[in-house]
Amino acid sequence: MQNTVANNLQRAMRGGAPGTFSLVRSFAAIQELVNEGCFDDGQVEGLPVWALIYYCLRCGDYKAAFYCVQQAGSHLVDSYSAFFEDMAGNDGQVSESVSEVLRYQYRHVVASSEDSFKKAVFCLLGGCDIKEDFPEVVQTAEDYIWFKLGQVKTMPDGHELPMDILTYNHLQSLISQEYGETHYKATEQPFLYASMLLLTSQFEEAIEFLNRTSFLRPHAVHMALALAETGLLATSVPLQAPLLSLDENEPAPSKRLNLPRLVMTYCNKFSHSNLAEAINYFYFLRDLKDADGVNLFKLCCCDLALENKAFNVMFGMLNERGDRVFGVLDEFFSSEEDTKAIIRMVAEESEKKSCLEDAIFLFELCSDHENSLRLLNSMLGQILPQENKLGSVRERMESVAMMHKQRYHGKEINCSAPTASNFNLLCRLIEFFNHWHSKDFRKALEIISEVELLPKKPSEVEHYIAVFRQLSGDIMKNIPEVMLATMNILSAEYSRLKSNRVGSPTKHHAQEDLRQYGQAITAYSASLPYDMPGDTNAKMVQLMMTMN
């Protein structure tokens, strides 16, 4: 109104005391209402009284509307002064008793009037004739929403509303279902339709609508996050639910928005290039949980880490002392344990996906040394006898094992004694096979003697079979290769001594020791309670024969 008056000052002829009535009078003068249609109950300052009352109500000034009634003359004052005085004194609230009287008068008197402004005022205040839109009076979408919201009525609990009364849910259905996108030409006027939904508190449907248009999607996401933070957004929990869904426990047309799905879909386009920004968006999901009770912020961070594998950026890394250097995720938690809980989630998922090298690193990063060493032992057990070639899995795992060993040296770790013992034994066996492959037989024999896995004399066989039964599966399955490598070393050493033509008591004693060593291992191999590879015992016998 102010803009219209300011742009038409000559026609507005604004004057008198500043205020709502002065503004409305000038605005009505510009509309040239006197030359249009029929008007009831006279004029105020040359303008139709009901038009002035309507525009005062549209400005939200109920006292100005009451002033118009008072200025209209005794007929209007006698008939309606009490209604408007009651409304002006209650900040625009119309009591149910007054509404009943207005509805009665509308049905019996006003409905037949040709004054559209008078009919509109009665329908607005009395909440009657809800199907009438008064297009000659209510000319904009914003006016329409204001008018319909004014018609909305509620009843105390236990009272049923009459069929001809507009409820808030009915108004929402009117906008989103009866009129809908087609009526408002939503594809051509997206802001108009979105504003109609927003002004009727259909936030979820407005966000879903905006999200369908690429250039409006950022606004949809940010609006959703702001509404969720203030507790004004109805959200759905199951991640598999559609973006917009109905809730059978709520009155139509109430809907729920799948906020996690909206946020995760939006973040997909930049989560690879900007982890920190994606995590900032996921942080808004911190108060939501999935069907299993898992915090969605943590779940999203877990999925992001598994997809990007940028563990050092998200979670930090271990320094030379074995302490964790913080990553991006630590900025969102007051306690380091919260970050470690997410790291553990990622580690567990990595293990389920058989990404064991990732899991080993992550378990150690969250100080879960037990699981880190458990998986490392399993990996070492799979590649133990292999030759250490450049770029091989064995080379990587040996490097990981040596770093673990260096970090754990002299420190107390969160690990059971059997797991730590298995790890140390596997590290020694790595050294054994390295020396075996490099032909350093003397050093290899020293290591195999120190770890005490194989008997040196036939009399020790029973003892070492008992030792075998105590071994972990990661070590047990490598015993056949350990025996064959040791027997090959013994055979080679025996042949070396035998080729030396110079005889001496020392030489014969050494040969006898090697022969006894070989006999003990052969007997041990034949007696083990273990399904050996098919040709292991045959190879053992052949090697033993070379020492006879």
Structural overview:
The chain contains 28 helices and 6 strands. The longest helix has 23 residues, at 505-527. By secondary structure, it is an all-alpha fold. Among the domains are: 2-151, no CATH class; 168-267, no CATH class; 452-548, no CATH class. It is rod-shaped, with a radius of gyration of 43 Å. The protein has helices at residues 2-7, 9-12, 20-31, 49-58, 62-71, 74-89, 96-108, 116-126, 141-151, 168-183, 190-199, 203-211, 217-229, 259-267, 275-282, 296-308, 311-315, 336-352, 356-365, 369-383, 393-408, 417-437, 441-451, 461-469, 473-476, 479-499, 505-527, 536-545; strands spanning 43-44, 47-48, 244-246, 255-257, 317-318, 324-325. It has a two-stranded antiparallel sheet. The chain has a two-stranded antiparallel sheet with strand order 3-4. Strands 5-6 form a two-stranded antiparallel ribbon. A hairpin with an 8-residue loop joins strand 3 and strand 4 (255-257). Helix content is 61%, strand content 3%. InterPro entries: Nucleoporin_int_Nup93/Nic96. GO terms for molecular function: structural constituent of nuclear pore.
Write a short abstract of this structure.
The protein is mainly alpha-helical and 548 residues long. Helices cover 61% and strands 3% of the residues.
Give short descriptive properties of this protein.
single chain; 548 residues; mainly alpha; two-stranded antiparallel ribbon; two-stranded antiparallel sheet; 61% helix
Count of DSSP E strands? 6
What is the CA-CA span between the terminal residues? 116 Å
Q: Helical percent range?
A: 55-70%
Biggest sheet: strands side by side, in what order? 1-2
The rounded Rg comes to: 43 Å
| Shape type | rod-shaped
* Helix count, DSSP H or I runs of 4 or more residues: 28
User: Which structural class matches the secondary elements?
Assistant: mainly alpha
Low-confidence stretches: none
Mean pLDDT: 90
